[in-house]
Amino acid sequence: MKKWWIIAIAIMLVGAIAVPIAWAQNENTQTPAQTPSNATGTQLSESQKKELAALYSKIAELKKQIVDKYLEFGVIDQKRAESMKQRIDQMEKFRAEQGYLPGFGRGKFNGGFGRRRGMGFGGQCPFIQQNPSQPTQTSQ
Fold first, then answer.
1. Cβ contact 81:131 at 8 Å
2. Distance between CA atoms of residues 115 and 108, nearest Å
3. Residue ranges of the alpha helices (H) in the chain?
4. For every one of its 140 residues, what pLDDT tens digit does the chain have, with 9 covering 90 and above?
5. Which of 55, 62, 51, 123 shows the shortest CA–CA distance to 88?
6. What DSSP designation does 83 have?
7. Which of 34, 99, 103, 126 has the smallest count of CB within 10 Å of its CB?
8. CB count, 10 Å around CB of 81?
């Protein structure tokens, strides 16, 4: 009876190792193409890109107006307002470089929504008032 249990466990271990290896060999392991595309591989025409660029530009201007209002109301200081506006400009540039296709950076931020290790705004979120006595985290 003991012999059958050992054989059954050995078969399960072999299966647990062999199945993921077989699946990995069937998947496309090549790196994605450098041209921006979404999951279906479609591309946008130049007129579609221009239309999206105009919309994203309006969104960016509205976001900057909101930042100005936060500054006016005293919610944030001038330094944070400038860094938030700079980030808005960076994202607008990034979208243009990526062809205005949807997605979360397509793997360029190492699993987070910001700079490495999921630390957002490099450990200094402009929306949260940081206590000056606490050291801020920085990504390296």
1. no
2. 9
3. 2-26, 46-73, 78-97
4. 788 889 989 998 888 888 777 777 655 555 444 455 555 667 888 999 999 999 999 999 999 999 999 999 999 999 999 999 999 999 999 888 888 888 655 544 444 454 444 555 555 555 555 555 555 555 44
5. 62
6. H
7. 34
8. 19
- Return the number of other C-beta atoms located less than 10 Å from residue 114's C-beta: 17
Query: How many other C-beta atoms can be found within 10 angstroms of the C-beta atom of residue 33?
Result: 8
Residue type, 139: S
- With tokens 């987070």, the residue in question is 112
Task: Return the axis-axis angle of helices 46-73 and 78-97, rounded to nearest 10°.
Answer: 170
Report d(CA 97, CA 113) in Å as an integer.
18
Tokens of 70: 């936060």
Q: Which residues contact 39 (CB under 8 A, 6 or more apart)?
A: none
Token couple for 103: 């997605």
Q: How far apart are CA 109 and CA 101, in angstroms?
A: 17
CB 130 within 8 A of CB 136: yes
